[in-house]
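Supplementary Note 3. Input sequence used for the single-chain structure prediction.
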Amino acid sequence: MIKPVKEKIILGIDPGTTIMGYGILKVIGTQPEMMAMGVIDLRKCGDHYLKLRRIFEQVINIIETFLPDELAIEAPFFGKNVQSMLKLGRAQGVAMAAALSRDIPITEYAPLKIKMAITGNGRASKEQVADMLQRMLKIPKESMLPQMDATDGLAAAYCHYLQFGRPQLDDAYHGWKDFISKNPGKVKS
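The predicted structure, written as C-alpha cells, is reproduced below.
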C-alpha cells in the first residue's frame, strides 16, 4: 500500500511599512518548492493607518489564494529609531492578526537566525540570501524579483521549513531504536 505524501504550505513574511515582502513555500514530503513570492507596495499610502489596513487586506488575500498551513514572520530588529521600530512592529502585528483571523499558527524568527539558516552567516547581505535561495530552490533567474523584500519573505518560510516545518512522513524513523523495531528481519544482532 502506497502512503500519500504529506504536503505543507508555509507563508513567509518580511514586514515593512514601505514594502512588505512575502514568499510561499510548498513542501511535498521533504521537498521544498517556491510557489510564489512578491511584495505589497505601500509607498502610495500616505497615512500610516491606511497602510495597516492595506497590509491586513493583502495578507488576507494571500492567505485565501495560497491557503498556507503556517506563517513564518521576521521579527523586528532593534534599531536606533524608536518611531521606525514602532511602525514596523505595528505592520508585523497586523500581518499576524490576519493570519490569526484564519487560525494559522505563527512562528517568529530573528533576522540573524534567518540569514544563518539560509547562508550559514548571520551577517549575510540580502543579495547573498537571495542567491542562496535561488540555488537551493532552483528558482529560474527570470522569476527572481528586484525587491529583496520578496526573497526575505521567502527566506523566513525556508528558515521555518529547516527548523521544524518539514512534514513528518508516516514511515520516517525517529532514531536507530525506532528503525530496529520497525525492521526486525533486516537487522542482525
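The chain has six helices and five strands. The longest strand covers residues 31-41.
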